[in-house]
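Quick illustration for those who missed Monday's session on complexes.
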Amino acid sequence: MKFALIFNPYSGGKKSHQFLPLVHKRLNQPQNTIDLFTSEYHGHLQQIAAALNVEKYDAILTMGGDGTHFHVLNGLLSKNKAHTLPLLGIIPAGTGNSFVKDLDIFTVQDSLDAICKMHYKWVDVCSYTQGENRVYFVNNLGLGFVTDAVRKAMFFKRFKQAGYLIGVVLNTIGLTFHTMELTVDDQHMCEQNCLLAVCNSRYIGGNMLIAPDARLDDGLFDIVILSPLSRFQLLKALPLIFSGEHIHHPAVRTLRARHIEFKTRPEKQLSPDGELSGTTPASVSIHPKLLRYLC
Ligand SMILES: [Mg+2]
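Prediction with magnesium ion bound:
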């Protein structure tokens, strides 16, 4: 087998390199060849992926977190049609590693087992446009509270998953709402909003079960909407997200759709797969079973 391994040494609080010996030990077999590409600066992951000669490989492996995979995915799809891509694999060496949990991959070892077996499943991919660009994501797209928390969490990355929690708490202290107009398939709504998450997979920020019923291959995304509530109500409800029980909270609404459009007042930043990319308005679509992921 011939693998391209795209490695982000900045993932997981710059600790992702600790898994490299294990990865080499498992994959460096006589029947395998590995081309290692290491990201050296901001924007490099996407450049590496865009320049890759994808036809040379049986699988393209990303070693890092959700953000690493996001940049690799967008680099790959900026230059290649989806059907020309080989199998994709994720070695979870990041902070949250939310998306891979839905592929039943919880550790680096799980991922290496899947790569050795070359077992895969077809997975839905979502996208939205920002001007001329199409942005792809596989985990979720957030705006409002969830995005503001991501932005704050970036200052606390060294605390790993606790960093995201710190972002959430700080954001609760400075809680704000926005006006949102949204069209979900054919249904039009206008309301005050705290948070919108368009979810392809179930987890966010590592182990928060934001969309407990989401499936990676049903051709639909799960939409989670949080309406305005007090700081006290929010703090009381927050722990429910770890078990997915928050979806029964009176301020939370869930929908399932193939297409969603939204605009907000004021303009809000968007966070696809835990990264910051673009602002409202946006129009999001799902591409059913677009890519094959090792699992
Ligand atoms: Mg789905």
